Amino acid sequence: MTDKEKNDDKKPKKSVECCGYPVSIFFIVVNEFCERFSYYGMRAVLVLYFRYFLRWDDDLATSIYHAFVALCYLTPILGAIVADSWLGKFKTIIYLSIVYAIGQVIMAVSAIHDITDTNRDGTPDNMAVHVALAMIGLILIALGTGGIKPCVSAFGGDQFEDHQARQRSTFFSVFYLCINAGSLLSTLITPILRGQECGIHSTQKCYPLAFGVPAALMVVSLVVFIAGSGMYVKAAPKGNIMLDVSKCIGFAIKNRFRHRSSKYPKREHWLDWADEKYDKLLIAQIKMVLKVLFLYIPLPMFWTLFDQKGSRWTLQATTMDGTFGTLVLQPDQMQTVNPILILTLVPIMDRVVYPLIRKCGFNFTPLKRMTVGMFLAAMAFVSAALVQIQIDKTLPVFPSSTQSQLKVVNMGSAQLQINIPPNTPVLLGSLQASEDYMTFDTPDITVSLNTNPVINKTFTLSLGQRQTLIIPSDPNAMYLTKDLTSKPEQGNNAVRFVNGMTTALNVSNVALINPSDVSNNTLVPQGSRTFTITDGGQSCQFSAQFGFGGAYTFLIPSTLSWTENCGGSIVRVEDIQPNTVHMALQIPQYFLITAGEVVFSVTGLEFSYSQAPSNMKAVLQAGWLLTVAVGNFIVLIVAELAKLPDKWAEYVLFASLLVAVCIIFSIMAYFYTYIDPAEIEAKFKENKELEPDEKEAKESKAIEMETHKTLQNQDDETKMTKI
């Protein structure tokens, strides 16, 4: 370490000011905006990356998502210890930001299809490579974002002098605004980037771009922070109070266990067993902290529900319609409702709701507010369950493993009556399909056509599958084709074409279709799509409008009109109904969960700050972050153990658990006595018991004073006698 660095560590220099504010905070604010953009942008598309790129099921995608979030809220404790005890805030931010940026870059690389060979359906051939890279990237990101979390805001506060209290308050307001601005913009932008198509050998959703932009922003964040290095006030590490607290608690437990014999006098509190080694004021402060931490025990359940916005609720949105007039929202963009509502509700609650409650004479204490916040979060999940019930009503009923389903399509020019026992006969006109799928409990069926002569043909259906019976112009050549047995993923639409002509056709972006054949399903996004059909010498175009999550079969007749626009000749058959439940129905649940967050989280931080000793506010902050981590671990347990067949039932389960915890917390809050830590500390210092050596010194001094006073009196008497 150079002499300059030593001086910087021991004696921080005064920051350069502009308009009363340190210039250095500009770099810190920009750094925070870019970092939050990077984190929330990556997290917004993360569960869909797990679900549709790594091909994990809903439960595994949810579990890994919440394991990552939990790790992000465990690592701040490590970051605080490293910064306060060893490296200092500045170096900790630099080193962990480098780790953070590397993690984001690795995540972007993990999403590139072409780093491994791809299968015919476009999925990576060696998925283990992508999974390994993703896990390494997420661990590094969790270490980086969590490690710098407790350092950046505190480092910003270090830049202000004692006389800049007003400016410091403004800085924290701007700092909080940057967090929400970064979150809002990133959750709007990265889903759009994800929705693009990219690739070299195969075209897929562009997760590399969705992760790459946050990675670039993290690099920018690091560069901006380093650029302000010469202007920062860099306070030296002063030791970590969390370590002192841990050591004191550990010593008390160990000492109590050592002196568990009944011959030792009992102590009023188990922490008093630490007074042989630790200052009584420290012990009293730890008692205050433990009293608040005890109240934290039920709190993780709130975060269990709250953080499912980015997992279960995003997956729910993939089965909904995101068309808002001319604006089309992606499922992961619904998360932007949360930061928008936060910026709206915080001032409304502070300026309108709380003052109104006080005017009505209600004592709306912080713990009562937190109880209301937990109840609102539970109601949010009840709302989500009601939305899920509406979604389930619109989902197609697919066959069980012992059933088969069949649809019939008449590609001929004459009307046909089709009889497939035990179902009722179906009358189909030219280029017409049966309205619904017919369900069969046995695989073997006999199809009868009312042609002259009557045609009877036997087919064996695949169990657990949907199929379509195509009847071409020559009914004797009828054939089966396999249909989808699940909704198209990510709100896309599945389209396929039936070629009723005698020549091969090429449909743009689909495939070459042989005569009397059916193309494979091709996924197309929501919106308008134009297709070009060619037979080698002739071509025509037609357009179709698509919603979210539908499946369609386009019938190309043998009498196709080769005009510029041949859409009038082509018939569209709906195999799977598109999503009809609108994403707007998620707004009430987002409103309730955000209102709960404002009442619960903001109040909880305020309560923790007011009830914590002056030197232990960081300890309670660490405890608060720990409740978030535990809450996400609870999601893992419930998601893996509950295994409920219906998603709405899982939402009701979470809501019920939170209501039960809410009742327990309200009872604990009823018996809690609010304190003023500053007043207690002041009284404790005044009434502090003296140590034995201090008592002896005090008594000695008292005797000396008394002797001096006696001699003085005797001297005065002598003088009076002389007079």
UniProtKB/TrEMBL annotation:
SUPFAM superfamilies: MFS general substrate transporter. It is found in: Apical cell membrane; Membrane. One of its GO terms (biological process) is protein transport. One of its GO terms (molecular function) is symporter activity. The keyword Signal does not apply. GO terms for cellular component: apical plasma membrane. Residues 687-709 have a biased composition (Basic and acidic residues). Electrogenic proton-coupled amino-acid transporter that transports oligopeptides of 2 to 4 amino acids with a preference for dipeptides. Transports neutral and monovalently charged peptides with a proton to peptide stoichiometry of 1:1 or 2:1. Primarily responsible for the absorption of dietary di- and tripeptides from the small intestinal lumen. Mediates transepithelial transport of muramyl and N-formylated bacterial dipeptides contributing to recognition of pathogenic bacteria by the mucosal immune system. Belongs to the major facilitator superfamily. Proton-dependent oligopeptide transporter (POT/PTR) (TC 2.A.17) family. This is Solute carrier family 15 member 1.
